[in-house]
Design brief:
single chain, Nucleoside Triphosphate Pyrophosphohydrolase, five-stranded mixed beta sheet
C-alpha cells in the first residue's frame, strides 16, 4: 500500500508541478489567409491547438488539433515560430506552447463543439489583433515580424 501511495504522489507531482506541453498552429490557406477559431469559453478568437496526448509527437498533435478544431488538414509544417512558456500565457494552467506555421487545406468544420464556436480566415491586414485569447496576440505578432522566439 505504501508503494502505491508513493506512485500516486509521484504522478500527482508530475501533473500538478510541471507545465503541460501543447502545440499551437498558425494555419495558412493556399491564398495566404490565416485561420483562427472562436473559443466557446471566452468568445475570443485564437489559434487552433491543444495539449500533446501521451504517445504523440508535436506534429501529430498539431494535425489532430487542427482537424478537431477547424476541419482542415495539415499539409506541411513550414517553420517553427517559437516556444512560449511564460507561466501566465494561458489563464487556465501553466503550459508550454510550441508554435508553428503550417500550410493547410480543406473545408471548415468544427468537430470539437465543446471548445470551438466559430472558424474564420483572415487576411494578414484584417487579423483581429488586440484581444485574442491566451497570448496569441504576441504569438501572431512575432510570426508576422518573421521572428523565431523562445519566451
Amino acid at each position: 500500500m505504501d508503494q502505491i501511495w508513493r506512485y500516486i504522489k509521484a504522478v500527482m507531482g508530475i501533473i500538478f508541478r510541471h507545465p503541460i506541453t501543447g502545440a499551437t498552429i498558425i494555419p495558412v490557406l493556399p491564398d495566404g489567409r490565416i485561420v483562427l477559431i472562436q473559443r466557446k469559453d471566452t468568445g475570443k478568437w485564437g489559434l487552433p491547438g491543444g495539449i500533446v496526448d501521451w504517445g504523440e509527437d508535436i506534429v501529430t498533435t498539431a494535425k489532430r488539433e487542427l482537424k478537431e478544431e477547424t476541419g482542415l488538414d495539415l499539409l506541411k509544417v513550414n517553420r517553427l515560430v517559437g516556444v512560449y512558456s511564460s507561466m501566465d500565457r494561458d489563464p487556465r494552467i501553466h503550459s508550454i506552447s510550441i508554435l508553428m506555421e503550417a500550410e493547410v487545406t480543406g473545408s471548415f468544420a468544427v468537430e470539437d463543439t465543446l471548445e470551438v464556436i466559430g472558424i474564420e480566415a483572415f487576411s494578414r491586414d484584417n487579423l483581429p489583433l488586440g484581444n485574442l485569447s491566451h497570448d496569441h496576440d504576441r504569438q501572431l505578432t512575432d510570426y508576422l515580424k518573421g521572428l523565431t522566439v523562445l519566451a
